C-alpha cells in the first residue's frame, strides 16, 4: 500500500517525481477556471474521503478541488460527526472506509492515529497534518521555492519560532531534498532532536541557534508559523508569546537574510505576532503561491498514492 505518511518515509526519487509532476500539472491548466477539469482524468471513478479532526481551510479546499479537477469525487468527514469520535476504533474505521473509498486523507491529533489508520486501511492513507508533522505543506513549499528560485538543493532555509509539526516536516525534507536548515527559537520550544539527527544523518547541515539575526544570515528562505498550534494548550499561549516574541519575522530581521531571500508561512498567520504585515505583504513574500501550490502538490501526491 502506497501511503503518504511523512516526507522521511518516502523515497527521494518519488518525492522529486511528485514535485516535477505537480509543476507540470500546474502549468498545463494555467489560466483555466478553477472548476474546469484537467485534460487528464486520472482519478475518474475514484472516491476520496477527507477526514478532519481539526479545523482546516487550505487542506480541506485544496484536496477537494484537486480531486475534482482530476475527475474524482470527495466526501468531507468531520471526526466529531463520525463514530470514530464516539468510541469506534481507528482500526475498524479504517477497514470500513476501505470498503467504500479509494483513498483516505486524515488530519488528526496524535501521529499514532494516522499510523493505525494506515496499518488497517486497504487503501492509501495521506497525512493531512498531525501533531507531529505536515508533509503535504512542505511538498507545496518545495514546489513554491523551486518555481521562484530553482532547485532547493544546497540552499539555506531558516525557521524562526516554535519547533513544531511544520518544522518537523522541513527537517524531513532537508534530509530528502538536500538543503541546509537552521532553527532559531527558544530552547524550551526546540524541535524533537530526532528530526534534527535524522536529517543530519542524511547529510543535511542542521543548526539550532538562539539569535534570530545570526540564524537568518545567508538564508535563501525564511519561514515561520503560528506560535500556538492547534494541538497546543491555550493556557500556554501567553508564555509562548513571551518566549517567541524575539523571533518575530519583521523587516529588520529579513534585512539580515540574503537580499533575494523568500518568505513563507503555511498559514493561517497571526499578523503582528509571528510575522508583521510588512513582511506578509512585502515583495519577498510568496505566501499565496504557497497556499495555491497545496492544490498542485497534493494532486501529485494523490496520483502517486493511487499509482495513476
Ligand atoms: N496550512 C494549512 O494546512 O492550512 P489549513 O489549516 O487551513 O488546512
Ligand atoms: N502548526 C500549525 C499548522 C497549521 C496549518 C498547527 O498545527 O496548528
TrEMBL record:
Enzyme Commission code: 2.1.3.3
Main location: cytoplasm
Catalytic function, reaction form: carbamoyl phosphate + L-ornithine = L-citrulline + phosphate + H(+)
InterPro entries membership: Asp/Orn_carbamoyltranf_P-bd (IPR006132), Asp/Orn_carbamoylTrfase (IPR006130), Asp/Orn_carbamoylTrfase_sf (IPR036901), Asp_carbamoyltransf_Asp/Orn-bd (IPR006131), Orn/put_carbamltrans (IPR002292), OTCase_ArgI (IPR024904)
TM stretches of this protein: none
Family statement: Belongs to the aspartate/ornithine carbamoyltransferase superfamily. OTCase family.
Domain Aspartate/ornithine carbamoyltransferase Asp/Orn-binding as annotated: residue spans: 154-304
Name of the protein: Ornithine carbamoyltransferase
Entry keywords, A to Z: Cytoplasm, Transferase
Sites where the protein binds L-ornithine: 165, 225, 229-230
EC top class named in words: transferase
Aspartate/ornithine carbamoyltransferase carbamoyl-P binding domain residues: 3-147
Function description: Reversibly catalyzes the transfer of the carbamoyl group from carbamoyl phosphate (CP) to the N(epsilon) atom of ornithine (ORN) to produce L-citrulline.
Pathway(s) served: Amino-acid biosynthesis; L-arginine biosynthesis; L-arginine from L-ornithine and carbamoyl phosphate: step 1/3
UniProt binding sites for carbamoyl phosphate: 56-59, 83, 107, 134-137, 266-267, 294
Cellular compartment(s): Cytoplasm
HAMAP family in alphabetical order: OTCase
Superkingdom of this protein's organism: Bacteria
Amino acid at each position: 500500500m502506497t501511503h503518504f505518511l511523512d516526507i522521511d518515509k518516502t523515497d527521494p526519487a518519488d518525492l522529486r517525481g511528485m514535485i516535477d509532476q505537480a509543476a507540470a500539472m500546474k502549468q498545463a491548466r494555467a489560466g483555466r477556471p478553477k472548476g474546469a477539469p484537467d485534460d487528464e482524468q486520472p482519478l475518474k471513478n475514484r472516491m476520496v474521503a477527507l477526514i478532519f479532526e481539526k479545523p482546516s481551510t487550505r487542506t480541506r479546499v485544496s484536496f477537494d478541488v484537486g480531486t475534482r479537477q482530476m475527475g474524482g469525487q470527495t466526501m468531507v468527514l468531520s471526526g466529531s460527526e463520525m463514530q470514530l469520535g464516539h468510541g469506534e476504533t481507528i482500526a475498524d474505521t479504517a477497514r470500513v472506509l476501505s470498503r467504500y473509498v479509494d483513498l483516505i486523507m486524515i488530519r488528526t491529533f496524535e501521529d499514532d492515529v494516522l499510523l493505525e489508520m494506515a496499518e488497517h486501511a486497504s487503501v492509501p492513507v495521506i497525512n493531512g497534518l498531525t501533531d507531529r508533522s505536515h508533509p503535504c505543506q512542505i511538498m507545496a513549499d518545495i514546489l513554491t521555492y523551486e518555481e521562484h528560485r530553482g532547485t532547493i538543493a544546497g540552499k539555506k532555509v531558516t525557521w524562526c519560532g516554535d519547533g513544531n509539526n511544520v518544522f518537523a516536516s522541513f527537517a524531513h525534507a532537508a534530509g530528502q531534498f538536500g538543503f541546509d536548515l537552521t532553527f532559531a527559537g527558544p530552547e524550551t520550544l526546540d524541535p524533537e532532536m530526532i528530526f534534527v539527527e535524522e536529517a543530519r544523518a542524511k547529510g543535511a547541515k542542521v543548526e539550532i541557534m538562539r539569535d534570530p539575526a545570526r540564524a537568518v544570515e545567508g538564508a535563501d528562505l525564511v519561514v515561520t508559523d503560528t506560535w500556538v498550534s492547534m494541538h497546543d494548550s491555550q493556557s500556554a499561549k501567553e508564555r509562548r508569546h513571551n518566549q517567541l516574541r524575539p523571533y518575530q519575522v519583521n523587516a529588520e530581521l529579513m534585512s539580515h537574510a540574503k537580499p533575494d531571500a523568500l518568505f513563507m508561512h503555511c498559514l493561517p498567520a497571526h499578523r503582528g505576532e509571528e510575522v508583521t504585515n510588512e513582511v506578509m505583504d512585502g515583495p519577498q513574500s510568496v505566501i499565496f503561491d504557497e497556499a495555491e501550490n497545496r492544490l498542485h502538490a497534493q494532486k501529485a501526491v494523490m496520483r502517486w498514492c493511487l499509482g495513476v
